[in-house]
Amino acid sequence: MNHGRNITRRQWSAVGALAAVLVVAGAWAQADAAPRIVERELADLDSGPPQDVRQVAFSADGRRIAWVRVEGDKHVVVCEGRESPPYDAVSGLAWSPDGRHFGFAASRDGVHFIVLDGIEGRKFTSVRGPVFSPNGKHVAFFAAFGGNRGYVVYDGVVRRKFSAAGQEAPVFSPDSRHLAYEARSGGGSRHTASVRDPNRDPNPNEPDPTVVTEDGKEVDVGSAGTSRTNFMVRDEQRGERCSDVRSPVFSPNSRILAYAAAFAGKWFIVRDDKIAGKLYDQVTRPVFSPDSRSLAYAAKLKDKWFVVQGKEEGEPFDRIGLLRFSPDGERLACAAQQGRQWFIICEGRKGPACQGIDWVGFSTDGRHLAYVARQGRHRSVMVCDGFQCPPHARIVVPAKADEIKDRLRYVVIDGGKARLVELAWPAETNWSNGLK
After folding, report:
1. Taking a C-beta distance cutoff of 8 angstroms, is the pair 78, 58 a contact?
2. Residue 402's closest CA among 381, 424, 387?
3. Looking at residues 135-150, what average pLDDT do you find?
4. pLDDT tens-digit profile of 37-58?
5. pLDDT (average), residues 4-18
6. What φ, ψ does residue 32 adopt, rounded to 5°?
7. How far apart are CA 104 and CA 117, in angstroms?
8. What are residue 374's DSSP bridge partners?
9. Which of 74, 253, 283, 344 could, after both became Cys, cross-link 292 (CB 3.0–4.6 A)?
């Protein structure tokens, strides 16, 4: 009996050892089978920015680079190895979508101007821009001649004058045929909000209320109270006056204009000149689905942010940002903050915590999800379907990085050098990998 028990123990010991070997072997097999996320270098942008760089701008395909070098109290723009004259200040570095044109705003001796392809333009007291149209044939920017008079300059021609131009750059429609921007003019009427009596007798001739609040209250506009001097301008036509307007965006089919607006301390989204959805404490720039039918944005109510898509409100977080639809319109991803930690969120599933998220994108078929996660100061990684690439001091994703089939292309900056790299979307995984 003792002999039998000893054999049994030895057998169990051997079985345990074998099991351990199998587990280790299985782990290695799984590791070998796991998708390899490798950044393949395409080009060494050897004119990359040194450590004293202040701004960096890449062309849409990531192959052309420009930056601002600080020399004492002067700023020099370096574009494709060519240096500009020194300026007192530089801002708004921008490439045309096709990468053929480059511009920025600059100042010298108290005057401001736009520099396009190395040529200094008309002088103003202030400028903001430039913005290129998607087809690369047009350019627009804000300017002022003095006082508080604001203008939009379109292809060198000064358009309508207002008391002040908006704080954000003008926006072109995807087909380059329409232009929208925020403006303000003096002499705006003042209004107050009044709530209709919910117990009043029905009146079929009664006009619709100005707004309907989230609790169903019907609100009309009175004659005195809140200033309404801000409005959105589309193709030189003014929209409704509000307390504030911002963040215009055109639908992918170029037919619909949406933007954020405020009245009487509440924010809402305007779509095609009509209020879309409820009133909130704050809202972000709206985002259209690829088919132009669905609209999503982040809204704040009672110190919490959540994603609003149609009439649905998502899970509350401390902050929400970087909303992005997949190209097929089936999924919506965003960055969300809870406490000091940030997460990628997609279809209600959450990724691992990080210190910040700088970019979110899908593959062209909508199957794969990638984002840039910050893991500390000067340490960022590209995460693709849950797999991390090597860390870099900085990652800059060009506008068309995710429009290349089967590839994701972006720029990494390390040690003052910039490199264009790409990685293949994993064949074995999809967007849900790494999300819980």
Report:
1. no
2. 424
3. 82
4. 788 888 787 555 555 667 888 8
5. 40
6. -70, -35
7. 9
8. 356, 380
9. 253
Nearest to 335 by CA among 354, 313, 309: 354
Task: State residue 320's pLDDT score.
Answer: 96
At position 362, the amino acid (one-letter code) is F
pLDDT reading at 3 higher than 60: no
Question: What span, in angstroms and rounded, lies between the C-alpha atoms of 55 and 395?
Answer: 13
What is d(CA 413, CA 368) in angstroms, rounded to the nearest whole number? 24
Could you tell me the two tokens for 67? Answer: 């930056």
Q: What is the number of residues in the chain? A: 436
For 22, phi then psi, to 5°, come to -65, -40
Listed residue (251, 302, 309) closest to 276, CA to CA: 309
**What are residue 319's DSSP bridge partners?**
337
Q: Which residues contact 110 (CB under 8 A, 6 or more apart)?
A: none
Q: Is the pLDDT of residue 91 over 90?
A: yes
- Please compute Rg for the chain using Cα positions: 27
Could you give the CA distance from residue 281 to residue 265 in angstroms, rounded to a whole number? Answer: 7
Domains (range + CATH), the chain = 53-165 (2.120.10.30), 178-193+211-316 (no CATH), 318-436 (2.130.10.150)
pLDDT tops 90 at residue 265: no
Whether the Cβ atoms of residue 36 and residue 407 lie closer than 8 Å to each other: no
Amino acid sitting at position 435: L
Q: Read off the pTM.
A: 0.78
Contact between residue 237 and residue 186 where contact means Cβ atoms under 8 Å apart:
no
Dihedral, 163, 169, 170, 171 alpha carbons, nearest 10: -150
- Helix (H) / strand (E) containing 319: strand 319-325
d(CA 347, CA 190): 43
Provide φ and ψ at 3, rounded to 5°. Answer: -60, -40
% of residues, the chain, pLDDT over 90: 47
For residue 208, pLDDT beyond 70: no
